[in-house]
Amino acid sequence: GAVVSQHPSRVICKSGTSVKIECRSLDFQATTMFWYRQFPKKSLMLMATSNEGSKATYEQGVEKDKFLINHASLTLSTLTVTSAHPEDSSFYICSARRDRGAYEQYFGPGTRLTVT
Amino acid sequence: SQQGEEDPQALSIQEGENATMNCSYKTSINNLQWYRQNSGRGLVHLILIRSNEREKHSGRLRVTLDTSKKSSSLLITASRAADTASYFCAANNDMRFGAGTRLTVKP
User: Fold this and answer.
1) For residues A36 and A44, what is the distance between their CA atoms, to the nearest angstrom?
2) When you count CB atoms within 10 A of the terminal residue's CB, does the N or C end of chain A come out lower?
3) Cα–Cα dist A113/A92, whole Å
4) Is the pLDDT assigned to residue B50 strictly greater than 70?
5) Binning pLDDT at 50, 70 and 90, where does residue A17 land?
6) Tell me: the pLDDT tens digits for A30-65?
């Protein structure tokens, strides 16, 4: 199987601080990773697409300076929420794809971020 | 955007009954995928159906595809309480999801 992990699973931080969330593909190399956020009982909203070794492509309306994405290796992508505010509280989910020609995504278990 | 849109938004049935949910999309596709999300968890890939296929089975799941109507349906037979989840479809490489169908299976 293809396993994607996220760390941490839950994090509480104070307003103004930054939080880093890691997404790892454990048993395969992921050329592409995706970051989503999800509000309670809502669908996933695609935030950005990151390809290894290049800059992330952000969806319209997503602030790239606030949500920093780094895809430094084929097994790791990180999302850093900078200067977090309570409205950034959400469920963040990453997914990974084996290669650009593949369709299936493998999702991480998600990270619950609470900003107080 | 080839975003899939699911309906109904919510579906509540008794254990043992069948559940059918639908997905509509906007443009021509090469394939369509269905995913499940349990509350507070990531999504799990269920099944992929290609544009040249009309029906596909996987255990208690049956997926149909009608490219002329740009729609797909997911049928879960003999539902179980553990099937309670949200279900999403995705077309081709489009990573944008619709609102999903929230299925509740009552024991």
Assistant:
1) 6
2) N
3) 7
4) yes
5) very high
6) 888 999 999 887 888 999 999 888 889 999 999 999
* CB-based contact, A91 to chain B, within 8 Å: yes
Structure tokens at A89: 């509280």
Instruction: Identify the bridge partners of residue A116 per DSSP, sorted by sequence position.
Output: none
When CB atoms are compared, the residue of A104, A106, A109 closest to B48 is A104
User: Sign of torsion, CA B5 B50 A52 A55?
Assistant: negative
Tell me, yes or no, if B42 comes closer than 8 A to chain A by beta carbon: yes
Contact B97 A44 (CB under 8 A): yes
- Contact criterion met (CB below 8 Å) for A57 and A49: yes
Across all residues in chain A, what is the average pLDDT?
Answer: 91
- Is residue B40 less than 8 Å (CB to CB) from chain A? yes
